[in-house]
Amino acid sequence: MSQTYSSTYTNTYTEARARVVMVSVLEDLVVLASSRLVGYETSKKWMEDLLYLLNARVLNYFELQVYSSNGWRIGGYKYILKDDGSLQENSRSGGIDPYALPPGTTVGLFADIDRTKNNIGDVDQYLANRGWGTNGTPLIGQASYERAYSKDGYGLERFKIGL
Fold this sequence. Notes:
Elements: H1 15-34, H2 40-55, E1 59-67, E2 73-82, E3 106-113, H3 120-129, E4 143-151, E5 154-161
Antiparallel strand pairs: 1-2, 1-3, 2-5, 4-5
Helix pairs in contact: 1-2
């Protein structure tokens, strides 16, 4: 007697879904920009770059990393991509309280990309042209789930780390 096993993976990515999900991230960035933790032009550039990475299908996750006035990383928000159809929750954006952060706080962006993809050369060139560095490091610490932004099974789960 023989047995057969199979496994399938559904990818729920579409450009339209990526744009819908990123509207909620934009709202998070607007809160940070309104509080002068990041410039409006910078947050606009980050949105463009994150959409590029989503559409290039190389983004694993990204982080909005929070730095104290002396330059120490004190925590941040981690957005993990879910593109397998498992994410069905869609929360309202928000929940970031910039006024709870110490004076002089700033925010930076870190992105973890899948370096095994065939288009990684083009992605590296794009990021270099946009001024990205290659020396970033992810946040370390206990992550607590906050909310999810999704459309039809595609989206991002947001976690808070160290704040």
